[in-house]
Amino acid sequence: MAPPPAIYQNDQSYSESCLHETYQESLKKSSHYEIVLSTSSGASDSRSLINEALINRTSDIDHESCDAGEEDSFFVCDLGEVSRSLDLWKQKLPQVQPFYAVKCNTNLEIIKLLASSGCNFDCASKSEIDTVLSLGVSPDRIVYANPCKTNSFIRHSANRQISLTTVDNAQELYKLQKFHPTCGILIRIATDDSTAQCQLSSKFGCSLDAAVNELLPLAHDLGLNVRGVAFHVGSGAKDFTAIHRAVREARQIFDTAISQYGYGESMNVLDIGGGFERSSFHESSFEVNMALREYFPAEYSRKQKVRFIAEPGRFMVSKAFTLATHVIARRDNFKAEADQVPAMLYINDGVYGNLNCILFDHYNPKPFVLCHNNKFFYLDQENEIEIDANANGTHLFSIWGPTCDGLDCVSKQTNFVSDVHVGDWLYFPEVGAYTLAATTSFNGFSGNAEIVYVCSE
After folding, report:
1. Where are the domains of the chain?
2. Is 404 a catalytic residue?
3. pLDDT tens digits, residue range 367-378?
4. Which has the closest alpha carbon to 120: 138, 94, 147?
5. Spelled out in words, what is the top-level CATH class assigned to the domain 34-42+67-79+317-454?
């Protein structure tokens, strides 16, 4: 039997199995987080590595005598999951270059790993641009994918040699002419994202008519460099036929730009946006490939030298992060009616912290019992994501965050397979997307959770 994986805090020991050489060297120098990097043989060992990290991090904490904050919530990040996501992308959409949406998860180790693996970046602000560039990424690997930009940020992007951005309105064209006239422009069009988890077309994207009859002629008159078309079918998209419709409209814009406005040499980028998820990637990638074959066939794409790019965010990181939280209080309702929850649990993270995805991302992560009375349950719930082991539980709770706001409700009703007391631990799997990137310090609670890294590749 192989020995359990070793755990190192701020140590230079690490596994080289899943990490690009350049990234390995940068990770060696990391001292901001606790680091667990363990040799493993692939996805099948991901759960055992996460389990080992959870046990090692929590088992020595005595909530009755520990220092203040020692029992704070923390993440376990499996870098192997990020590598597998990127590998899956390359397998299903080899012709589409991913530009990771930095806003989804701004963790530097994730950005370093993706950069060393050949992934490019979608940045939407000065800070995101500077973060990526500070890691040695070339400016031509960044798309400034924000259709409505601050003037000073446009000037900053020009100074930093960012050469591609998105536009969906005439005023933005005038701003670019004034502050960054050589920048390549992608006209962003609206899509039908009514079934998406987070709808974006209510805020961004112009109509096909506006693109063809307003923005193209204006860009031509202003002497601007239109490079192509961008769209986004919504974060966590469910209706993949919207991709087909958007690619069809993009081809119409290409044809008009080339035939009527002389953009034949420069019109060569199609950005299919984000919204992809690992769970539905077989279906969404099939729709992308079918649409590209129909509207951007190989002969046309070769002649026009079309480059296909995308902006995946949650696809890359959602499965990679598990959040562990400590149960800090319990309130029982001994007179609860049959339709009432008999007990309330209070944990040390919530919607103002790393579970802000409940409010901002319309995503309700599933809680599970990690530890009760020194018994660990993580590996006993092998298929919890697929079958929801909690549905078979007999211990009913509502779960609340630590702040003094009644809005800080993590779950109104959860069935657990075990009872839960003060001092126990819960965990939330698959919380890598739009969580730690949007934490607050409301009520004095820090959302800057420690991260423990493992690697299952």
Report:
1. 34-42+67-79+317-454, 81-316
2. yes
3. 999 999 888 988
4. 138
5. mainly beta
CA angle 436, 441, 442 (to 5 degrees): 120
State the DSSP H helix or E strand holding residue 412, giving kind and residue range, or none if neither. Answer: strand 409-416
Catalytic-role residue among 119, 183, 404, 409: 404
pLDDT at 37: 52
What is d(CA 190, CA 208) in angstroms, rounded to the nearest whole number? 8
Beta bridge partners of 271: 230, 309
Give residue-wise pLDDT tens across range 121-142: 999 999 999 999 999 999 999 9
Token pair listed for 284: 């969404």
CB-based contact 89:57 (threshold 8 Å): no
Domain 81-316 architecture: Alpha-Beta Barrel (3.20)
Contact 306, 269 (CB under 8 A): yes
Cβ atoms 224, 173 nearer than 8 A: yes
The 10s digit of each residue's pLDDT in 210-269 is 999 999 999 999 999 999 999 998 765 567 888 999 999 999 999 999 999 999 999 999
CA-CA distance, 290 to 262, in Å (whole number)?
Answer: 28
Say if residues 222 and 175 touch (Cβ distance below 8 Å).
no
User: Helical H runs in 59-149?
Assistant: 79-92, 108-116, 126-134
